[in-house]
Specification:
Elements (H helix, E strand, L loop, with lengths): L10 H4 L4 H43 L1
C-alpha cells in the first residue's frame, strides 16, 4: 500500500489567527475548562455522598 500524498494547505488557512481571535479562543477555553473542573468536582462529591449514605444504611441495619 502506498501513502496518499498530502496537498499543501491554502495560504489563507495557513495564516495565523489574529491576536484578538487567539485571545478570545484562549479565554473561552479557560472558561470551558473551569466549568469542566467544577462539574467533575460536583460529580465526585455527589458520588462520595451516595457511597457514604449506602455504607451508613448498611451499617445501621446490621
Amino acid at each position: 500500500m502506498t501513502k496518499p500524498t498530502e496537498e499543501a494547505p491554502d495560504s489563507a488557512a495557513a495564516a495565523p489567527a489574529s491576536t484578538a481571535e487567539t485571545s478570545d479562543m484562549a479565554s473561552a477555553a479557560r472558561k470551558s475548562a473551569g466549568k469542566a473542573v467544577w462539574m467533575g468536582t460536583a460529580v465526585g462529591i455527589g458520588s462520595a455522598a451516595i457511597v457514604a449514605a449506602l455504607l451508613y444504611a448498611n451499617k445501621k441495619r446490621g
